[in-house]
Design goal:
- The complex is a heterodimer of chains A (about 475) and B (about 280).
- Chain A is mostly helical and about 475 residues long.
- Helices cover about 60% and strands about 5% of the residues of chain A.
- Chain A contains 18 helices and four strands.
- Chain A has a four-stranded mixed β-sheet with strand order 1-2-4-3, with helices on both faces.
- In chain A, helix 1 packs parallel to helix 13, helix 5 packs parallel to helix 12 and helix 10 packs antiparallel against helix 11.
- Chain A is globular and about 95 Å long.
- Chain B is mostly helical and about 280 residues long.
- Helices cover about 65% and strands about 0% of the residues of chain B.
- Chain B has twelve helices and no strands.
- The radius of gyration of chain B is 31 Å and the shape is elongated.
- The chains are: A mainly alpha (about 475), B mainly alpha (about 280).
- At the A-B interface, helix 10 and helix 11 of A face helix 4, helix 5, helix 9, helix 10 and helix 11 of B.
């Protein structure tokens, strides 16, 4: 008896050690990939403005080519939170919190779905995959909260599927908080509705059992609209979701399927479709399969949804493992994986990070110090930093705040034309009366301007170049014939 | 067993949809596509134990191909990766996922053969994302396997539902409306109005310049240019434009509007907003 007791205690401690090592690995991975991109910086300057004015700003004085006074601050809660964090701890603090939120999402995905040691072993690679597929886009912005919200939502759907109660405040608070943190809040009422619809088609349960899903969706919707900005955000989310310009962003385009990393999640999804056919509870089998299929389609449509597909796969796998009570853990596998996780986690966490690694800090400073002439052309992904660094003192061309209202006036397309060096690129620099170009080093526009007689290079650093147009004769006022 | 009318209806619908897809390549390819699609449908719905899923599997590829057009199938650039945002690719994504779901419903992964079939179809699904030319192989593999694999307990055919399905599939023959959201115009007055409406004063100014230079005497083009210059902060240039209008206006109406602008500008000395 004493031996068995000792073995049980050892097993429990080994499991706890594995969990700690796994969390260290996930946190290290999140830290390794975490960055502050242009979007993170516009969150900060938007939040800073809200805190200064104690009101929502509507006038855009950061850019010179936007469509006028129609700026609506998205994700105001996240913006204020980011601004407060930067005020208190600086940009590095923002990086740390971003990494913690991302690792919290991956940890919830892992531990929330794996209740037994064997499940923790099986699901850990999925938690790692969750961060790996998000690696290119992992940055300190509202999307982090969107991921946390989605994983939490899946956990709540799981509770409903198990016939367990969910406190009415939970969906309400979820909707209200999510609406302030990220535009993906619309899925809070949508996912329960979709699941209810799939269960209805599946005929897995009678209609009275759909009530909890409908109540959850209604309360989440009420929470979204209880937020003073909820209705406006919902309208804007729909506008952006169906706007053709949204698909111009890398994040909302199909992943590059020539890169094998992007094939893992769809392949796993197919495996999960097959596994769910013969494994897990009979109830809701078809609904689960349809649910995975929807997310496979979404992940093929846009790389933004690859993380959501991985989350759904972990959710399904967790339910299968729980249903089959696979409690026998492989002690040696956990031991080896645990040690590997701990070493990886510690190594990654020791990695030094520069919050300004991905933005043209030197070039932006030089433009101000040397008072280089207006108007300044920049790529979209650096605009947020320029707004943060210049705080409206100098205006730039474009940033990533809003592609429908603010930059839906053709500027987004024109930035894309400069990025891809469309035949009319020179014409565009004339149209926007550009005298200074701040652009990524080595990009096609850099190559073209380098040998252009009308432009001279005034700065070149690790990532950016700055060109100034040679003084030119002002545009003549047209004379009648 | 499906009634003969249903079998014929399914084959005819599949043939028509395939012909619609290949019509842009000419009558010969359209005819060949129609024959192949008819045979494909007959193989699926001619089975003794054909289910409603087989019917859907027979109609969904020609339907998606008809919506996408033959150029989207990847027969020319077969090794290009799937990109949903390219023309005609979204129906093909729906087809990929739809066929996968139908396959899982029709062929339960029980038994070694069915599991191997699922693995094959799954691999071809993934391959069709890597190289879009593999889409046809994926669809064919799924269809053939679903036809010959041990049957599942999928819903059986109900005649009204089957005819509804065929009717819905035939909607693929209706040409999609052409997107007319962005009319292309080279008329400067229209372009100035359009860019001003969209809130892009820089593009509007460019076209206002073009408009103004074509005016024999300063008229609406000059007024538009002056207004835009003023809004962009080119105040000296705006006054120059207005001076030209005052000197030789195209009409009394133009002169009157120039005077209104002048009066408004004299009172407008508000500095630009700052943080």
């Amino acid at each position: 008896v004493r031996g068995a007791l000792l073995s049980a205690i050892c097993s429990r401690w080994a499991d706890r050690a594995f969990v700690v090592a796994g969390l260290a690995c996930l946190t290290g991975l999140a830290w390794h990939h975490m960055a502050i991109l242009g979007d993170g910086f516009w969150y900060v300057f938007s939040g800073r403005l809200i805190l200064q004015r104690h009101a929502m700003p509507h006038d855009d004085f950061f850019t010179f080519a936007s469509a006028g006074n129609r700026w609506i601050v998205f994700n105001a809660g996240a913006a204020v939170l980011w601004a407060l964090l930067v005020q208190a701890f600086g940009l590095k603090g923002l990086l740390v919190v971003g990494a913690l939120v991302a690792s919290c999402a991956a940890g919830m995905l892992w531990l929330g779905n794996a209740l037994a040691p064997s499940g923790r072993l099986l699901l850990f690679p999925l938690a790692v995959l969750f961060l790996v597929v998000d690696a290119e886009d992992l940055s300190a912005r509202g999307q982090l909260f969107g991921d946390v919200g989605f994983i939490f939502l899946l956990a709540m759907i799981g509770r409903l599927r198990d016939g367990r109660a969910v406190h009415p405040l939970v969906p309400f608070v979820l909707g209200a908080a999510w609406a302030n943190l990220h535009m993906s809040f619309v899925v809070a009422p949508l996912v329960p509705l979709v699941m209810a619809g799939l269960l209805l088609v599946d005929r897995a349960m009678d209609r009275t059992m759909l009530r909890p899903y409908l109540v959850f969706a209604a309360l989440a919707l009420a929470g979204c609209f209880a937020n003073p900005l909820g209705a406006r955000y919902a309208a804007l989310t729909c506008l952006q979701a169906f706007d053709a310009r949204t698909s111009q962003f890398d994040l909302f385009r199909s992943p590059d399927f020539h890169d094998p990393t992007w094939l893992v999640a769809p392949a796993l999804g197919i495996a999960m479709l097959g596994a769910r056919q013969s494994l897990g509870n009979d109830g809701g089998r078809r609904a689960d399969q349809m649910f995975v299929a929807i997310f496979i389609a979404a992940a093929c449509l846009s790389r933004r949804y690859a993380t959501e597909l991985v989350a759904v796969e972990a959710w399904i796998l967790g339910r299968i493992v729980t249903a089959h009570a696979m409690s026998r853990g492989l002690a040696w596998a956990r031991g080896v994986l645990g040690v590997a996780c701990l070493v990886t986690g510690v190594l990654l966490l020791r990695e030094p990070k520069d919050p300004l690694r991905d933005v043209p800090a030197e070039a932006a400073q030089l433009i101000v110090e040397r008072n280089l002439p207006d108007r300044i052309m920049n790529p979209l992904h650096w605009g947020g930093y320029l707004g943060y660094a210049w705080n409206g003192a100098r205006k730039y061309f474009i940033d990533g705040r809003d592609q429908t209202m603010l930059f839906g006036n053709g500027t987004l397309e024109d930035e894309g034309a400069l990025w891809t060096m469309a035949p009319h690129w020179e014409h565009l620099l004339d149209v926007y009366e550009v005298s200074t170009v701040l652009w990524p080093r080595g990009a096609p526009l850099d190559v073209a301007l380098r040998r252009h007689p009308a432009w001279s290079l005034v700065h070149e650093d690790r990532i950016a170049v700055v060109y100034v147009r040679a003084p030119r004769v002002p545009m003549a006022v047209p004379s009648p014939r | 067993v499906l009634t003969p009318a249903l079998r014929i209806g399914t084959c005819v619908a599949a043939s028509l949809l395939a012909a619609r897809c290949a019509w842009e390549l000419g009558p010969g390819p359209a005819l060949a596509a129609a024959v192949l699609a008819g045979m494909y449908a007959e193989v699926l719905v001619g089975a003794r134990e054909a289910r409603i899923g087989h019917l859907a599997l027979a109609l969904s590829p020609p339907f998606a191909f008809a919506l996408s057009g033959s150029r989207s199938l990847g027969l020319q650039n077969y090794d290009a990766a799937f990109v949903a945002q390219e023309a005609g690719q979204k129906p093909l994504l729906a087809l990929r996922v739809g066929v996968l779901v139908l396959f899982v419903v029709l062929v339960p992964p029980k038994g070694r053969t069915n599991l191997l079939a699922l693995a094959l179809v799954g691999c071809l699904f993934v391959l069709s994302l890597v190289a879009r030319g593999a889409l046809l192989a994926y669809v064919l593999a799924a269809a053939v396997t679903a036809r010959f694999a041990s049957p599942a307990t999928a819903p059986s055919v109900r005649t009204p539902a089957a005819w509804t399905l065929i009717g819905l599939a035939l909607l693929g023959l209706v040409p999609l409306p052409v997107d007319r959201s962005e009319p292309t115009s080279s008329d400067p007055p229209q372009l100035v109005a359009s860019w001003r409406r969209r809130g892009n004063l820089f593009q509007a100014r460019w076209w206002a310049m073009r408009w103004a230079t074509t005016e024999p005497v300063p008229g609406d083009g000059h007024l538009a240019l002056g207004e835009i210059d003023w809004k962009l902060g080119h105040r000296i240039q705006a006054w120059h434009v207005l001076d030209k209008v005052f000197a030789r206006p195209a009409s009394d109406d133009v002169l009157r509007r120039a005077e209104q602008l002048s009066a408004a500008w004299k009172h407008d000395d508000a500095p630009p907003a700052g943080p």
